[in-house]
């Protein structure tokens, strides 16, 4: 997940470079919003890992996808910030409000949500087996929906 987030931020820098060197494709105008909205929540989730989440425990990573509150807060903060910036451009000199950027931000947020769902589905069997004791267990103190 952290690798995906880092690659997304590098993609934004690459896209900016393409635009500065004369590329005029419409996709390059709203792609940074799409990529940022799809990868920035990963920063918040990675910070959760650094704050004592049991991700180092055997199969602890399977529980990461079940931290519903963490994912929701990450999505709200990053999407809200990107949308606030877009709407603030109406009042900033030399900035342009663009509805495509708003739609790209919403699409990126939906893409993050889809990635979380895929993560849950991909780890469901391992998580179930770990929580029922069939394999080395997950950290008991962690709640799947916290």
Automatic annotation (TrEMBL):
The chain crosses the membrane at residues 27-49, 70-90, 102-122. It comes from the Bacteria. Keywords: Membrane, Transmembrane, Transmembrane helix. This is VanZ-like domain-containing protein. It comes from Lysobacter daejeonensis GH1-9. The lineage of its organism: Bacteria, Pseudomonadati, Pseudomonadota, Gammaproteobacteria, Lysobacterales.
């Amino acid at each position: 997940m952290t690798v995906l987030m880092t690659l997304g931020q590098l993609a934004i820098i690459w896209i900016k470079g393409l635009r500065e060197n004369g590329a005029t494709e419409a996709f390059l105008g709203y792609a940074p919003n799409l990529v940022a909205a799809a990868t920035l929540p990963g920063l918040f989730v990675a910070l959760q890992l650094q704050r004592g989440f049991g991700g180092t425990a055997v199969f602890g990573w399977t529980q990461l996808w079940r931290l519903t509150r963490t994912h929701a807060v990450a999505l709200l903060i990053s999407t809200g910030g990107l949308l606030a910036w877009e709407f603030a451009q109406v009042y900033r000199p030399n900035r342009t409000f663009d509805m495509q950027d708003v739609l790209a931000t919403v699409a990126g947020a939906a893409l993050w949500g889809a990635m979380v769902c895929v993560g849950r589905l991909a780890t469901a069997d391992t998580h179930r087996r770990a929580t029922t004791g069939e394999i080395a267990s997950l950290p008991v103190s962690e709640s799947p929906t916290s």
